[in-house]
Design goal:
- The protein is of the alpha+beta class and 401 residues long.
- Helices cover 41% and strands 23% of the residues.
- The chain has seven helices and 15 strands.
- The two termini are 59 Å apart.
- A hairpin with a 5-residue loop joins strand 14 and strand 15.
- Helix 3 packs antiparallel against helix 4, helix 5 crosses helix 6 and helix 6 runs antiparallel to helix 7.
- The radius of gyration is 31 Å and the shape is elongated.
- A five-stranded mixed beta sheet has the order 10-12-13-15-14. Strands 1-8-3-6 form a four-stranded antiparallel beta sheet. The protein has a four-stranded antiparallel beta sheet with strand order 2-7-4-5.
- The longest helix is centred in the middle third of the chain and has 74 residues.
C-alpha cells in the first residue's frame, strides 16, 4: 500500500534524497506489517526486491556445509537488506526472518529501474548510497560471520572435551573391577588346565569354552578402556621438547608400520626439515589414528597409498605447520561428514570398528598440540585430513588445553 515518503527519512539509504525523491520512491513501493517468525527472504531464492525495516527486529542467518544455520547479524529499524537485488537479481545469499513483529518497506527490482531510468541525478544518488551501504554491510557481516564461526568452533571444542572427560572418567572407574575380572578369568583358566584327571573330560571341555569367551571379551573391554583413556589426549606426563617436526612425523609413520593395519598401506612422507617445539606423543597418536582410519575405510579391501605432507603455514597470524594425510580411496559420503568427529560414529561397526579414531585425533590436535583439525573428502576421490599446529607453544611454555 502507498505511504508517505517522510517515513523513509529514517532509512539511511534514502536520508540523502529530497522529500520529493523519497515520495517518488514511496509511491512505487509497499509497506507491510508481519508477525515475529516471518521469513522475509530465504537463502538461495531469486532476488527481486529491496527491503527496509521501519520497525521491529530481524536476524540474518546462513547455512553451513554441515547443514547447520548460523546467525551472522541482527537488523533493526532503518536497516536495509536485499540491496543487490536492485542491481543484479541474483540468488539471495542469506535468510532473513523477523524476531519481533515488524513493519517494512519493499520495492521491486522493476519498479526501481522504472523510477531511476528518466532521472540520472536520482540514479547517481542512489547508486552512491547503495555502494556505501554495501561496503559497510559487507564488512559488518564478515565480522559477524567470523565471530559466529569462532563461537561455533569453541562450543564444539567444549562439547568434545566434555565427552572426553566423561568417557575417560568412566574408564578410570572401570580399571579396578576390570582388573579383578581379568585376574579371576586367568585363575579360572589356570585351574581348568590343572584339573585332576578324575574330573570328567566332557565337563572340562564344557567349562573351557565359556572361560575362553570370558577371557576374550574381557580383553576387548580392556582394549576399549585404553582407547577411552586416549580420548583425553593427556600430555602432562611428557616434557615439552624441541625437535624437527619432519623427523617426528617419520617416527610416527614408522611406529605405525609395525601395526597389522599397516600391511595394506604404502605411506610416503614429504616436506623439509622443520624446527618445532611441542609434544611428540600426540603427533604420533594423531598419525596412528589417521593411518589406521585410511586402512580401514579408504582401502577396506585391496589397500593403497597414503601421502603425508608437511608444509609451513600460519595459525591466527603465528607461524605454524600444516600436516596433511591424504588417501585416494573411497571418500566420505556427504551425509556422514557432519558426524565424523562424534564419538562412536562409524560406518564399519560390522567389521569391528569402534568409531573413535577421528575423535582421538581431533582431541590430540586441539588439546596438547593447540591446533586446528579439518577433513575434506568427496565420494570416490579420496580424503585429506589436515591438522594445523603452532611452530612453538604460547609463551607460558604450555600448549593450549
Amino acid at each position: 500500500m502507498p505511504f508517505s515518503g517522510s517515513s523513509l527519512a529514517t532509512v539511511p539509504l534514502f536520508a540523502g534524497l529530497t522529500p520529493a525523491e523519497r515520495d517518488a520512491i514511496a509511491a512505487r513501493g509497499d509497506v507491510q506489517d508481519v508477525p515475529a517468525g516471518t521469513v522475509l527472504i530465504r537463502e538461495g531464492d531469486t532476488a527481486d526486491a529491496l527491503f527496509a525495516l521501519l520497525g521491529g527486529a530481524a536476524r540474518v542467518s546462513r547455512r553451513e556445509a554441515s547443514g547447520r544455520d548460523v546467525v551472522i547479524a541482527t537488523l533493526g529499524p532503518g536497516d536495509c537488506f536485499g540491496e543487490m537485488a536492485l542491481l543484479d537479481g541474483e540468488q539471495r545469499s542469506a535468510t532473513i526472518a523477523t524476531t519481533t513483529p515488524c513493519r517494512y518497506f519493499t520495492m521491486q527490482h522493476d519498479a526501481f529501474w522504472d523510477l531511476i531510468a528518466p532521472s540520472p541525478a536520482l540514479l547517481r544518488k542512489l547508486l552512491a548510497q547503495l555502494s556505501a551501504r554495501m561496503r559497510d554491510t559487507s564488512g559488518r557481516l564478515a565480522r559477524a560471520e567470523l565471530e559466529a564461526r569462532v563461537a561455533s568452533a569453541e562450543a564444539e571444542m567444549r562439547r568434545q572435551r566434555a565427552i572426553a572427560q566423561a568417557v575417560t572418567g568412566l574408564a578410570h572407574e572401570m580399571n579396578t573391577p576390570l582388573g579383578i575380572c581379568v585376574s579371576m578369568a586367568s585363575v579360572l583358566e589356570s585351574r581348568l588346565d590343572k584339573a585332576p584327571p578324575a574330573l570328567a573330560a566332557p565337563l572340562l571341555a564344557e567349562l573351557r569354552e565359556p572361560a575362553a569367551l570370558i577371557a576374550g571379551n574381557l580383553a576387548r573391554v580392556v582394549a576399549l578402556t585404553q582407547t577411552f583413556h586416549a580420548l583425553a589426549a593427556d600430555h602432562h606426563a611428557e616434557a615439552l621438547a624441541s625437535a624437527d617436526l619432519l623427523e617426528v612425523i617419520e617416527e610416527g609413520c614408522c611406529l605405525f608400520a609395525a601395526e597389522p593395519a599397516a600391511r595394506t598401506l604404502s605411506v610416503t612422507v614429504s616436506g623439509a626439515p622443520s624446527p618445532w617445539r611441542g609434544y611428540r606423543a600426540p603427533v604420533h597418536r594423531v598419525l596412528a589414528e589417521l593411518l589406521a582410519n585410511a586402512a580401514a575405510h579408504a582401502y577396506p579391501a585391496e589397500g593403497g597409498t597414503v601421502e603425508v605432507a608437511l608444509a609451513p603455514d600460519r595459525i591466527d597470524g603465528r607461524p605454524a605447520y600444516r600436516v596433511s594425510v591424504r588417501d585416494r580411496g573411497a571418500g566420505i559420503a556427504p551425509e556422514h561428514r557432519p558426524k565424523l568427529l562424534d564419538p562412536f560414529f562409524t560406518t564399519a561397526r560390522g567389521r569391528g570398528h569402534r568409531g573413535l579414531g577421528l575423535t582421538i585425533a581431533h582431541n590430540a590436535v586441539t588439546g596438547p598440540l593447540g591446533g586446528r583439525f579439518a577433513v575434506e573428502s568427496e565420494p570416490g576421490a579420496g580424503t585429506t585430513v589436515s591438522f594445523l599446529i603452532p611452530q612453538r607453544p604460547p609463551a607460558s611454555g604450555r600448549a593450549p588445553g
